[in-house]
Amino acid sequence: MLFDLRGRGRRRTVRAVYLGLAILFGLSFIGFGVGTGLGGGGIFEGLFGSKESSGGAGYGKQVSEAEKRTHLHPSEAAAWAALAEARFHNANGSEFYDEEKQQFTAKGKEQLTKVVAAWNRYVALNPKNPPLTIAYDMVRVFGEEGLNQPGEAVAALQLVIPSKPASVTLYGDLAKFAYQAKDTSVGELAAKKTISLTPAADRKRVEQELAQLKSNPTGSPSKETFTGTTNGKVYTVKVGEKGQGTILKTSPASTTTAKTSSTKK
Asked: Is the pLDDT of residue 88 over 50?
């Protein structure tokens, strides 16, 4: 794919939107477990890749050492960056991250707030050359699987982008979080930059993806109604708040193969 949007929670919800009908009707509505429980794949795969398996006790010592350093050198930006990064890796331990749900647990989110505290102290010191590693990590901290603060994710990306070669990935990511934060002006600028960086052969498709992203930034299929044909019947299914499907209507399929469609309420 041309550009990815960071966060595995995003992978699940976007896949639900774009493959919702295939899931609903291709599996013949078995259990009606629609959408949001799926992991991986989809149009936008995670920019960060898989979550690191390391964490927990292995980073506890690093957190302690980084905390001591900030106490000794409270005006040293690098010390706060090191603390934020150590706390972030610690928060990725199994105690704080649910691999099955692909999101941080309640305790994990408490750890993320500590990451943010160190990050805010770091940013307040106006560092000239922010380390890209922790800036990237903060996008995930503020993403959907973490604290779900897209406006803060935009701010983190705006620190990263000037120091990296312009890419479809980074600007597509910026568009996504800006739209989620309802910052349409930044979203539009990022979307235009994304399209300009896209090879001509794929530009139309990416424009369509960005339009979908703008109209539905979270990619959640909740409260949408899908209509499709399976086993000789036409089903109309509404997706609930938690991704469950409810059949609203069934009718015999016409002899002509019907096109599946979806509408959003």
From this structure: yes
Cβ 120 vs Cβ 170: under 8 Å: no
- Number of residues written out for the chain: 265
DSSP per-residue letters across 22-80: HHHHHTTTSTTB-STT--S-SSS--TT-SPPS--THHHHHHHHHHHHHHHH-TT-HHHH
pTM of the full structure: 0.62
Which residue is listed with tokens 């603060």? 149
Asked if residue 1 lies in contact with residue 43, where contact means CB atoms within 8 angstroms, the answer is: yes
Topology (CATH level 3) of domain 57-215: 1.25.40
| CB contact at 8 A, 154 and 183 | yes
Q: Is 74 exposed, middle or buried (0-12, 13-18, 19+ CB in 10 A)?
A: exposed
Tens digits of residue pLDDT in 19-29: 443 433 443 33
The tokens describing 162, both together, are: 């000037």
Q: Is the CA virtual torsion 6, 132, 129, 80 positive or negative? A: positive
